[in-house]
Amino acid sequence: MYVLFKGTLSNFLFSLDDYKARKSKLIQKYPQGSFIWGFNRSSNLLKNQVRAFLYLTKSGSHLKGGIVLEGEIIDIAELSEKYWPEGEWKYYVALKIIYMPKSVLSTTDTTKWKIIDLDKLKEIGVKILPGIQKIDDKLGKRIERLLGEIDAN
Asked: What would the pLDDT profile of 39-91 be if each residue is shown by its tens digit?
């Protein structure tokens, strides 16, 4: 089983910076290669070892929305203090990063990012719904293949 989280560019960039620089006390609780993501409602979909994708919502004219990473859930916990610049989040997951495109890792200029965009997701049958979303295994494996092709080309 796979799950799909959604979020904003600014919160993603904050987590990405912490993933790279490991500045926060929160990220330091987890091994190198861990990424922190927040959410508000607990879900029975979330368990350790479940694969997760992160979809960034449309932001300005440059980012039309798309999947920027795949990870495996290694922890689910309540957040004790504010972490992200936008919004208040009650819970977080720590993800062991499985794949993040090199373009996303190397620049914050979203015009240079190679991601699985909303049009491609619609084409393969992914509908972006509110909240944490279950993705069936067949579709999850298809998304994994598409992610793997990004840096192969």
From this structure: 998 788 888 999 999 999 877 656 788 999 999 999 999 999 999 999 999 99
The CA distances from residue 43 to 29, 93, 101, in Å, are 23, 11, 28
Please state, in angstroms and rounded to a whole number, the distance separating the CA atoms of residues 76 and 78: 7
> Could you report the per-residue pLDDT of 77-134, keeping only the tens digit for each?
999 999 999 999 999 999 999 999 999 999 999 999 999 999 999 999 999 998 999 9
- What is the number of alpha carbons within 13 Å of residue 92 lying toward its C-beta? 22
CB 101 within 8 A of CB 147: yes
Instruction: Select the CATH number that applies to the domain covering 2-150 from these four: 3.40.50.970, 1.10.1040.10, 3.60.60.20, 3.10.590.10.
Output: 3.10.590.10
